[in-house]
Design brief:
It is built from seven helices and seven strands. It is α/β, with parallel strands linked by helices. The chain has a seven-stranded mixed sheet, with helices on both faces. Helix 2 runs antiparallel to helix 5. The relative contact order is 0.19. Bound molecules: zinc ion.
């Protein structure tokens, strides 16, 4: 990716992005690219919304990326004209060169909606499109088969710091979450003979 890329990342919830592509975001920012993330819902499932928002701000500050928060109904995100109009505006305001969103192999209903939103928003555009890997912990899902790997070894500390910002979720899910993320990143790293990598699925690549 070129140094002056404009990267838009779509996600349903806070903490959906950093475990999947916090390393790539850190690398992109370091290379002088702009990264804007758009979070569509703030869950209210045992942890107050303001805590979730605070953690999100903290994480994006660590990564130094731009942030848009929408307050759609969490757990009940609906694919309809209203949501596409919102997403189109986010896309058209930023005019990204690269668009990332979650995989179609997800198991959470909100994630699946964001996957569809991403494909719709990316229509008729000259934008590179990628899916980031399935979100952990996601339970059993179809195998995510990345076909683009990024060496993030140099940025692993910052990635871990950005995930650590979500202390309420680490408390809720347990430290196993962090270990699983690291194991997956090491596994993707082994695919390209480096310590840690992130894996993505190319949907549309323009050269
Ligand atoms: Zn999520």
């Amino acid at each position: 990716m070129k140094n002056n890329s404009k990267v838009l990342v779509l996600a349903a919830h806070p903490d959906d992005i950093e475990p999947q592509m916090g390393g790539l975001i850190a690398q992109l920012i370091d290379n002088g690219s702009r990264v804007r993330i758009a979070i569509f819902t703030i869950p209210n499932d045992g942890c107050p919304k303001d805590v979730r928002v605070e953690e999100l701000f903290h994480s994006t500050k660590i990564l130094n990326c731009e942030l848009i928060i929408r307050n759609e109904e969490s757990g009940n995100l609906k694919l309809n004209q209203k949501l596409i109009t919102i997403a189109d505006k986010i896309f058209n305001d930023f005019k990204p060169t690269h668009l990332f969103f979650c995989s179609k192999d997800e198991t959470h209903q909100d994630h699946l909606v964001i996957n569809q939103v991403g494909h719709i928003v990316g229509r008729k555009t000259n934008c590179n499109i990628f899916e980031y890997s399935t979100i952990l912990p996601g339970g059993f899902s179809k195998e995510f088969n990345p076909n683009w790997f990024v060496d993030i070894t140099k940025f692993y500390t910052r990635k871990k710091e950005s995930i650590a910002a979500y202390s309420s979720q680490i408390k809720k899910i347990g430290k196993k979450w962090l270990r699983d993320i690291e194991k997956r990143d090491a596994y993707y790293g082994s695919k390209i003979n480096v310590k840690y990598a992130e894996g993505f699925k190319i949907i549309k690549l323009i050269t």
